């Protein structure tokens, strides 16, 4: 912090020596002179609950990146250029470490993360949960979906919570007990398996109405995992692929007729819908 500030001419000279000759002494002087900029910017991110020392280290990484990319011929002060790299490095660190859940994966989400609280304060929305009017106005300002704004507001208003944390003081149950299961319940699973087996038997019986060549084409085209191409079946049967397509189309119509003969109303029988 006691390192002297650099004039524009001195910055240009140090940057050129580092860029052209890889002068480590010039780089050290340039970096040391602007460590105060890193410390100052780190104080702006301290309210995210992360160690200031870690923020300073990340800012130093950004400062080093700025020094490696700085073009002195553009006649821009190094401090102005480096500020963007320092801020970007700190913001990336905050997004990676503020929560165990990944936050701000898009540019609009990142902008919301770092500006939502300030904008709510400007709108006078100081309650714990953001009002719908404030969310709508902020969404319009950022040109983002209102649901994204609401989700970010909810993320910022609550800290991470373990799914194994008890629901109450007595320890009866955990938060994960309230999560909805994605899979079917046992009754639905049994019904699905029963219906699937019934449909399989029905299709197998209907295939008996087809001749041998039609069954082969339907099996290879529709009932195998990968599906055989028309060209491959044509070579196998000694016919053109167009003829295979015609046989397939006729076989599908015959199969449909056979299925409807066995189940006149598939919806009522529970095979469809």
Structural notes for this entry:
- With 273 residues, this protein is mainly alpha-helical.
- It has helices at residues 8-21, 24-33, 35-42, 52-69, 78-97, 107-122, 132-142, 146-157, 186-207, 212-222, 230-237, 241-262, 266-269.
- The protein contains 13 helices and no strands.
- The chain is elongated.
Looking at this protein, list some descriptive labels.
64% helix; 3 domains; Arc Repressor Mutant, subunit A; mainly alpha; Four Helix Bundle (Hemerythrin (Met), subunit A)
Quick summary of this structure?
With 273 residues, the chain is mainly α.
Q: Class by helix and strand content?
A: mainly alpha
Report the C-alpha radius of gyration, rounded.
34 Å
The description of the largest β-sheet is: none
Quaternary form: single chain
Helix content: 55-70%
Q: Total helix count?
A: 13
Listing every helix as H and every strand as E from the N terminus to the C terminus, the arrangement reads HHHHHHHHHHHHH
Whole-Å distance between the termini?
73 Å
CATH class of the largest domain: Mainly Alpha
Give the topology, please:
Blueprint: H1 8-21, H2 24-33, H3 35-42, H4 52-69, H5 78-97, H6 107-122, H7 132-142, H8 146-157, H9 186-207, H10 212-222, H11 230-237, H12 241-262, H13 266-269
Helix pairs in contact: 1-2, 3-4, 3-5, 4-5, 6-8, 7-8, 9-12, 10-12, 11-12
